[in-house]
Amino acid sequence: MIVRLNTDIVAGLVGLAFAAALWLPRADMGRLSIIFPRAVLVILVLLSLILVLKGFIRPGERRIEITGSPRRLLVVIIGFFAWWMAIDAIGFLVSTVIAFYALTWYLARVEGVVRWQRLARWTPAILLLIGTFYLTFKEVLNVRLPTGLLM
To answer: What pTM was computed for the model?
Structure first.
């Protein structure tokens, strides 16, 4: 599918929508824990506004070719929103492990049947990635991550 659009305006609007969605549920965090997320949101809003402004000042349509299955793209988008909602219910760590395994399995299905041995080979990489994110946010940035029911 080929789409003609001004990518600067679209990216800016998506950034603003994402920032607005993340701005609303921030009230339950502590004063020190909110400093980094608030800074990221402010930077995101500024960059998004610059993109929208650039899109109007220097308009130019670009042809975007979207390859692959639109259904697969929609499933991944819905999966990320489900993961985002599951973080509060069952905790960041558990929901992230489940989401990464599910996403890896779903996207690898394109090549054919995914056996459990194949997923087991990906385990070190998945756990290292999740552990890096967890330790970075929890220990380095001092962000209080949701614990939920499980962890």
So the answer is: 0.58
